[in-house]
Amino acid sequence: MKDAYWFSHDSNARNDHRILAVRIKHGMKGYGIFFGIVEMLRESKGYEMLNDCSTIAYDLREDIEVVKDIVNNYDLFEKKGKKFFSSSLKNRML
Known about the structure:
The chain is mainly alpha-helical. 54% of the residues lie in helices and 10% in strands. A 3-stranded antiparallel beta sheet has the order 1-3-2. A hairpin with a 2-residue loop joins strand 2 and strand 3. Helix 1 packs across helix 3. The protein is globular, with a radius of gyration of 13 Å.
């Protein structure tokens, strides 16, 4: 049996206006990248990560420019110095 950690997310997250903007530009691939990043944040101390899109892109095996776009635009993540996080994820984990 493997250990798995979980977090909740809205069943209609795909319809959030910010996610819809990602989907318009990047399709469902962008949606998958977004949730890949959220999963990485879930695994990170304090649910925050360095804003290092090249490392994120490598981990997800995706294009760095798409990762940069998703992390830095659409108001999906908040910045704190050199780190970023999802307020929604942090609130769910409290």
